[in-house]
Amino acid sequence: MSRIGVFVCHCGENISRTVDVEQVASAAGEIPGVAYACDYKYMCSDPGQNLLKKAVAEHKLDGVVVAACSPRMHEKTFRKAASAAGLNPYLCDMANIREHCSWVHEDKKLATAKASDIVKLMVERVKKGKSLAPITVPVTKRALVIGGGIAGIQAALDIADAGHQVVLVEREPSIGGHMAQLSETFPTLDCSQCIMTPKMVDVANHPNITLHTYSEIEKVEGYIGNFQVTLKHKARSVDESKCTGCGICMTKCPKKKIPNEFDQGHGLRTAIYVPFPQAVPNTPVIDRENCTMFQSGKCGVCAKVCGPGAVDYQQEDRFSVEAVGAVVVATGFKLYSIDRKPEGSPIQGYGEFGYGAIPDVIDGMTFERLASASGPTGGKILRPSDGKEPKQVVFIQCVGSRAREKGISYCSKVCCMYTAKHTMLYHHKVHDGQAYVFFMDARTPGKGYDEFWRRAVEEEEAVYIRGMVSRLYQKGEKIVVMGSDIQVGVQVEIEADLVVLATAVQAQDGADLLAQKLGISYDKYNFYSEAHAKLKPVECATAGIYLAGACQGPKDIPDTVSQASAAAAKVMTLFSKDQLERDPVVAKVNEKYCVGCLACKKVCPYGAVEEKEIRDRQGNLVKVVAYVNPGVCGGCGTCQATCPSKSVELDGYTDEQIMAMIESL
Amino acid sequence: MNAKANKNQSSCIEPSYYQAVTQAIRTQAVQVLKDGTVAGVVGYLPGRRKGTARPALITTPEEAEKLIFSPACVNNLSVYLTKSKKGVLKQGRIGIVAKGCDMRALAGLMGESQIKREDLFIIAVDCAGVYGSRAERSESVTEANIARKCHECTVHHPEGADFVAGAATELSGLTPLEAEEMARIEALPQAERWAFWKEHFSRCIRCMACRQVCPFCYCEQCLCDKNRPQAVENSPRPAGNTAWHIVRAMHLAGRCGGCAECERVCPMDIPLNLLNRRMAKELKELYDYEAGLAPAEKGPLNQYKEDDDQSFIK
To answer: Given its phi and psi angles, is residue A475 left (phi above 0), alpha (psi -120 to 50 degrees) or beta?
Structure first.
């Protein structure tokens, strides 16, 4: 007969408000095999834990059930206490009567009955439980950072500075991300490139950082401390080891009129190009879709002029496998496009703004490029259609954001501030111009932010109109902006020369696919989910994977940099140990009954199942069975659910335990 | 393939066709046994009663001269390679006579690591159909006595074999009995559908013949025989019967090749293949997948693809 102890917690009033804890404890005392049951106000407190330790010794308990909160909250606490009292920690289990019961019910009688049932289940589970020993696994002290924007750069530099190797992967030809595109940054109006490019160069020169640009994540295998990541190095058509970055190929390339992505399509580039002059690495890439050599086979100018012979038209996509112990995901954002969206998309386009058909209606990033000294207009604000200087500019905030009916309900966080910055930049460059801003609210929490906004309104003469725009249309050279001023209660019509839309921040294209490869969760907008909104804001629920920057949700630069350093700190914490202890909740195969159909191998998301040959003493093959590598097993139990003959079981969740739990009800 | 899908205008399959197939099988079997390609051939020999057939493992060219193929060759021989007959494959490469429906079981077993293609020499039969359970063993095959499964056969002309015997011209215009029955049951209100199966399952005597004859029930210890903990009650009572039949149907989903051996051997005439067909239909509709057409490394139910429908998660 088992000797189980049941410890029922009041959790202050969190549980006892809706559950009669004394009754739960006395009912638990009646369960066969329960030797001791009690209740206490705060079981997790020191006196509560001491109560448990004392009871284990006094009543010679061989198993413990703590009826309290979720195991995610305090399982570790109580297992430690049980262990200190001499019990195997895996014979201590939580009965979750808070999240699963008191917090979600109102009727005290029913909630009490349910709490008793939950306790009964866990008593049965512990009765059939086994002593388990933790598994230790080695840690590869090498980190992978995905995304070479400011978030990825900061995280990579911090980890590398701590003395660990970092692999930084960027899918574009250069690192830098969106920050490299910005003209000046709020709230100090310092030049973005001036503060960004030194960091980019630091990355390139850092002895601990291996940089892979124009590369993507192909496959991720393994687990915390031991990931194997397959990288796809897209064919650059230029041998990075030979290229000196002299740039003569770009000067001579006859294909010169390709819209430049870095300038949001408003500048021009060649078919062999670097995205911008300060690119890191300064190695060009051939845009095969626009290259005459690739399209018609006739040209080859770049190869002819290249001194070191770095141009290689035959180059193919290459794959490499990197062993890393931790992953920082920093894939950033993209801007909402107001174009018509495909049929059935939850996100709507902006028909009232002409679905992006008016050339002088641009987005905020395009304005950044127009205002940037390195931009297509050399820093002059000129409108795209005819190159004239706009005298009336209308800025519209919350385009896409906070528009539930358009499919996005969140606030993009940065637009209020950058629109205020835009009005200032415009005012500084076009002295006789007038900026108007249509806005819902001005959201300016942040150090120096509200002061910055007030400066735009009070000193830099931007006219802020509280209200939304209902329609935009072209009238001759002007764009008529029809909106409302809800504070005055009138309709407003402005004939503008240029309209700038503060479009919503969205997750990068393919963010969901990357999440699936990494096995991390994401929300309905494809932003990655942190493990806990408040207490684990940089960790993913998947161990060993951390988040930095706007891939988690819209963020400005200071927040992004803070989070990147936080993620780096988490990685360093992980790397501070040589061995990791893992829960021994892993699957084991019953080799006697396994028939080797290997269905478990097919479904295992961790790649933990291998084939094992069973041989007799003469070495003859008896049969092939499945074998679960305990170091790799994630303990998800998918194999157990799949096995047709139930020949594989998860320790701690055996069929015997689960059936006993069901039968107890 | 050498077979041409000519539709037979006559209403019966001439016995001469089966004789031609028999001859082809014999010639091929003798040859592969003589030249040592195979250590044995699993095929059919005449049964003791006239017009019947029985499965057999033969190992000499002399015995191979006695092999037959007739409408009475109903058995799916793939079960003679696994389960208690695992020793058969240990003797070396084995020839096996397989109809189209049997080939689907072989493909499935290959996908599930139970047999290897290189261990087999598949003598496929371009099959015009076999007898239903109540057919007189002396008649020609007609719509009246052909097996139910053959009414809707899509694998008369098997592919991927080492040798194909015959070139069948199958009966045309057969009524799709099972599809009709399935449609009839699907149209019933839920309560009546439940009553239909409840009645059938209540008659089950748990003889387990359906399991023993099924090429995919190759587990060494069936889940339903486990008693610690017991998942399925194993005496013939309604709850356990229902559980067993649900387990059987679910375990075969995405695997069953439709040989309908389970239904043939059921002494209580429970329409088991109807359940199998229903699951197959589900797989076809959800994943556009048909089991056993080729050895699949992963069936749709044990793999995850990035383009799988994710809408239910968000």
So the answer is: beta
What ipTM was reported for this prediction? 0.84
- Which domains are assigned to chain A? 4-133 (3.40.50), 142-234+317-332+508-575 (3.50.50.60), 248-305 (no CATH), 337-506 (3.50.50.60), 587-664 (3.30.70.20)
Q: What is the pLDDT of residues A591-640, one digit of tens each?
A: 999 999 999 998 887 788 999 999 999 998 889 999 998 877 888 999 99
Of B219, B221, B298, the CB nearest to A602: B298
* Residue B302's pLDDT band (cuts 50, 70, 90): confident
Domain boundaries, chain B: 12-165, 177-292
> Which of B113, B216, B225, B309 to mutate to test binding with chain A, by most A CBs within 10 Å of its CB?
B113
Q: Please state the rounded mean pLDDT for residues A456-475.
A: 94
Q: Is the peptide bond before B71 cis (omega within 30 degrees of 0)?
A: no
Residue B310 burial class via C-beta count within 10 angstroms: exposed 0-12, middle 13-18, buried 19 and up: exposed
Show Cβ contacts of residue A210 under 8 Å, excluding neighbours closer than 6 positions. Answer: A165, A166, A167, A168
Cα dihedral A63/A69/A72/A75 (nearest 10): -30
User: Do B298 and A593 make contact, defined as CB atoms within 8 angstroms?
Assistant: no
Question: Could you report the per-residue pLDDT of A191-234, keeping only the tens digit for each?
Answer: 999 999 999 999 999 999 999 999 999 999 888 899 999 999 99
d(CA A663, CA B43): 48
Taking the C-alpha atoms of A594, A597, A601 and A604 in order, what is their torsion angle to the nearest 10 degrees?
A: -80
CA–CA separation, A275 vs A267, rounded Å? 11
Query: Is B6 in CB contact (< 8 Å) with chain A?
Result: no
Q: Do A646 and B230 touch (CB under 8 A)?
A: no
Q: A301 and chain B: CB distance < 8 Å anywhere?
A: no
| pLDDT above 90 for A18 | yes
Whether B105 and chain A come into contact, CB under 8 Å, resolves to: no
3 state SS of A318: strand
Single pTM value for the model: 0.67
- Among candidates A593, A655, A660 on the partner chain, residue whose Cβ is nearest the Cβ of B220: A593
Mean pLDDT of A250-270: 93
Taking CB atoms and an 8 Å cutoff, what residues of chain A touch B221? 592-593, 645, 647
Give the amino acid at B14.
E
| Out of A602, A645, A659, closest to residue B223 by CB | A645
Q: How far apart are CA B258 and CA A35, in angstroms?
A: 55
* Of A65 and B289, the one with more pLDDT: A65
pLDDT digits 0-9 by tens, A127-165: 999 999 988 889 999 999 999 999 999 999 999 999 999
Q: Tell if the CB–CB gap between A597 and B112 is shorter than 8 Å.
A: yes
